[in-house]
Amino acid sequence: MNLAIVYTSKTGNTEELVSFLKDLFFKKKITVQLFRIEQFPLQDLTAFDGIIIGTYTWGDGEIPAEMLALYRAFETENVEHIATGVVGTGDSFYPHFCGAVDAFRDMLYVHSQLAVTLKVEISLETKDLDRCRRFVELFLKRTTGFVKKELLRTIL
Ligand SMILES: Cc1cc2nc3c(=O)[nH]c(=O)nc-3n(C[C@H](O)[C@H](O)[C@H](O)COP(=O)(O)O)c2cc1C
Predict the structure, then answer these.
(1) Strand 50-56 to strand 32-36: parallel, antiparallel, or no bridges (unpaired)?
(2) In this protein, which residues make up the domain named Flavodoxin-like (predicted)?
(3) Can you tell me the distance from the alpha carbon of 62 to that of 48, in angstroms, rounded to the nearest whole number?
(4) Taken in order 146, 31, 35, 2, is the CA torsion positive or negative?
């Protein structure tokens, strides 16, 4: 499986979260490529089997500007086969907590095989570690189930 985590992070919270998720995949012997959004080869988007998006939230519940091209690519390209997940950090002081996660979630639900989402309050704390483990388990469970179904379709 060709899996990637694509993320953005201004002050490091989301970066810490996605690095932890990557380690959890690694412990399960699953290789996941980690890309900062600026390094992600957007032209190869449809070649991935699974993509997890990591984002903070900006402005009034908004998607950070650097993530908009990725958002539009998912909206317009043939990504129906891609299993997706969304994670993010935010601050519940703001009226729309992790608004960027919600925006990606709603769009990915329509265009891709959305498996699971996760929101973290500012930065990882002990209470979040189990939620991260659960995220990885659910992502893999739903992703492999979906990939198997796709393979079957191709074979039949
Ligand atoms: C100007 C500004 C606007 C923000 N707006 C929101 C918001 O609407 N909703 C939210 O949940 N968090 C908001 N945040 C909080 C950040 O998303 C949060 O601190 C996040 O953990 C930063 O992630 P990073 O360390 O990966 O950059 C805002 C922060 C700043 C500085």
Answers:
(1) unpaired
(2) 3-140
(3) 26
(4) negative
14 lines ligand 1 (CB under 6 A): yes
Ligand 1 centroid to residue 50 C-alpha, Å: 26
What pLDDT digit, counting tens, does each position of 44-79 carry?
Answer: 999 999 999 999 999 999 999 999 999 999 999 999
Q: With a 6 A CB cut-off, is 57 part of the ligand 1 pocket?
A: yes
Q: How far is the CA of 102 from the centre of ligand 1 (A)?
A: 14
Q: Is 88 a pocket residue for ligand 1 (Cβ < 6 Å)?
A: no
Q: Cα torsion for 96, 113, 71, 55, to the nearest 10°?
A: 50
Return the structure tokens found at 67: 């993530």
- Domains of the chain by residue range: 3-155
E-state strands within 20-133 = 32-36, 50-56, 83-90, 113-121
Fold for 3-155, please state it.
Answer: Rossmann fold (3.40.50)
Task: Kindly give the distance from the C-alpha atom of residue 80 to the centroid of ligand 1, in angstroms, as a whole number.
Answer: 30
- pLDDT over 90 (residue 154): no
Percent of the chain beyond pLDDT 90? 90
Report the separation in Å between the CA atom of 91 and the middle of ligand 1, taken as the mean of its atom positions.
Answer: 6
